[in-house]
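BUG: 3D viewer hangs when loading the predicted structure for this chain

Environment: internal workstation, default settings.
Expected: structure renders.
Actual: progress bar stalls at 90%.

Input used:
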Amino acid sequence: VVNRLRKEYVYSTLLNYW
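Structure tokens produced before the viewer hung:
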């Protein structure tokens, strides 16, 4: 469960960063 949340968080950060 934590892994999934982390993945989503990384994706959100990447989208915001780009």
